[in-house]
């Protein structure tokens, strides 16, 4: 199956789960805290606002390959029929672009590149 041909919102759906799992593992091992505190910390990494800001920084640093930029753009430009919660549509779309590339890398079994991106996301958010 050609992963590039999947609907970009399907890639974003997968990418959301990948990022959420990675962040949860990271904060559980780092904080060893109660679930409520873990949830509060996790929001710093997985909120649409955070993902949008992270994508902007990665794009400004030319972090992505041309192929990856295409996936990000498809994810960002996809027409979603769900409403963005607690954010504007532009922020929501950018976060969908970041999630789409995460989903693509995961489903295409590009584990090394996926790990690089996930580590970069954690580092960027930690520096804020």
TrEMBL record:
Q: Where in the cell is it found?
A: Cytoplasm
Active site (catalytic residues): 16
GO terms for molecular function, please?
ribonuclease III activity; rRNA binding
Example of a GO biological process term: rRNA processing
Keyword annotations for this protein, in alphabetical order, are: Cytoplasm, Endonuclease, Hydrolase, Magnesium, Nuclease, Ribosome biogenesis, RNA-binding, rRNA processing, rRNA-binding
Primary location group: cytoplasm
Required co-factors? Mg(2+)
UniProt EC number: 3.1.26.-
The answer, when asked if Cytoplasm is one of the entry's keywords, is yes
Give the record's GO CC terms.
cytoplasm
Task: Name the Pfam families for this protein.
Answer: Ribonuclease_3 (PF00636)
Locate the RNase III domain: which residues?
A: 10-109
Function of this protein?
Answer: Involved in correct processing of both the 5' and 3' ends of 23S rRNA precursor. Processes 30S rRNA precursor transcript even in absence of ribonuclease 3 (Rnc); Rnc processes 30S rRNA into smaller rRNA precursors.
Q: How does it assemble?
A: Homodimer.
PANTHER family recorded for this chain? MINI-RIBONUCLEASE 3
Q: Which family does it belong to?
A: Belongs to the MrnC RNase family.
Its name, as the record gives it, is Mini-ribonuclease 3
Report the source organism: Staphylococcus auricularis
